[in-house]
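Human: If only I could read backbone structure tokens as easily as an amino acid sequence. Underneath my words sits a plain record pairing an amino acid chain with its backbone structure tokens. Take your time, and here it is.
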Amino acid sequence: MKLIREFTKGLFKQNPIFVIALGLCPALAVSTTMENALGMGAAATFVLVSSNIIVSAIRNIIPQKIRIPCFIVVIASFVTIVELLMAAYLPALAKSLGIFVPLIVVNCIILGRAEAFASKHKVLPSIMDGLGMGLGFTLALALVAAIREGLGSGKIFDVVVIKGYEPATMMVLAPGALLTLGILIAVTNLIKKRKA
């Protein structure tokens, strides 16, 4: 039951984008298409789960004074793996995501989960925390991207979703990202307020 709670908290109660408001830079920058959003979400989830496993496994042998630099080295190692795999097997996606894949190293979600959770818990709960937060991040990115791509081009995954529609080009630009994210955060807060 506790493991399920650790997993589901990242989906709703502590969603990295809509509730905690971390990782907003990639959420705004790469959410122009669903391909980009899912690619970034998968990359961040892999790094999050992998770094949580290692940080949790070595938490008792890292001196307290150097824990943050150690966490960053672990995270950077997995980001390098993701970056090389994307460049080798998904070059178009790697080119589309550009600098935002290497910037996963400094993503507050990843370092925050390493510091706040994985460094204090065993491996299995840390895996569930990483999976939940990663999936929550991915779902949030996908929702933002679906709205932006759907309204900005009338298509999602190159499939027409709105026929006879004049695309709102603003939605695939920076103002569209801010507008979409702001509305979704407001809706999330409204839902939380009504539940309380």
